[in-house]
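Appendix B, Record 12. Input sequence as logged:
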Amino acid sequence: MDEFRPTRYQEKVLSVPENVDLFLGGGRGGGKSYCKALLILRHVEQYREKARVLYIRKTYKGLSDFEIVLRQLFSAAYGKKVSYNATEHVFRLPYGYVELAQVDGPNAYDKVQGRSFTLIMVDELTQWADPYVIDMLRSNLRGPKDIPLRTVYAGNPGGVGHQWVASRYVLPADAWMPFPGHSGGLCVHAPSTYLDNPHLDEEDYRRQLQAACAGDDDLFRAWTEGDWSVARGAFFAGCLSPDRCALDPWQEIPKGWKAWIAHDFGTASPSATYVMARSPGATGPDGHYYPRGSIVVLDELATSRPNRPSEGLGWTVPRLSDAIKEMCAKWGIQPDGAADDAIFARARGFDAATIADEFSQQGVRFYPAGKGSRKAGWERMRTLLSQAGQPDLPGLYISRLCTYAWETLPVIPRDPRDPEDLDSDAPDHAADAIRYGCIYEPVRASQRDF
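Logged structural output:
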């Protein structure tokens, strides 16, 4: 059993009182997986037949990885008295109950709805773009009065949920210091890095992490140092800076500037619409000079739920159109501009009305953003952001009125399968809309197809 002896980090985690929730954060390779298995084993041993444990991952692959860890530990502890039902993902122990479940969204939550557990673990927490499902799971935490009910979460910095996880579990207090958790009880952030795991070859593991980061130095620092202070590995890291790119709200669009709107449509997911203007090479109302071709994002309409940047309000096209027209009227511009190609698709037949047609009937005119690949659009946007603040190159500037954009853009991660693209599972609606606006050429009245 020597190979199953806890590390110093794991011993420290096990010493936290059981009536305190845990967030196992930090970098990769710190021994968090085996630490979670030890917490489960201790819970079962202490509370025996009353213990009911639920372990959650967003993917089946994640379940399989942790299943192997539990098999090894349970076999060492119980020998032939343990069995595993691979169909139900349930471990049958001499006493107690341990279930593994894949839950990737509200619909998948149905498989555990209404059931009771005394210990709930959610792994790779930053894979969830918002905490909606995580909060739903709290309702499953029920048990006898003599058992301390507990939730244990784990995750690394840099996923689609980086922002809400950091604000909820990392930023409220220093590591290892109890703080009031979201559920009303106490919580402790217990971070680790690969240096806390004596079973690793440190140099070899560091090289593996570096290779997996594909040259992304920010992501590499996140994985090795476990730094949550900023969104390490974010897609716009290195080019989006509030000091250079953010501007105080304007009251009007200067004469001679071309203006349009840019829109990304959504109902269940948020829609995002922006008022954008291009400088002819002139000074703005704030007294700053904007080189020719600079783009200023002046205002936004984002239909996201509070604190849930990936969840929309379900607005219909007529309601959304009214809000867009009201925003455009405030700026004295026509409600027309760029939108995503999807709203021009005739999904129900050649003669069927498109979403763009429905907008047009409401007095909002959209056109395809323009030719070019998605990656080319991102490169254009990143280039403009990186040039913001330079006196002789066009830049991209975003008003502080655009709160949804400033909430989401700095933390959107790269696609783990393609570093040249962002992760589309993240709340990318503001990013998409602004990208459309950056590659769009406003249509002249004489070219419009009325």
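The radius of gyration is 25 Å.
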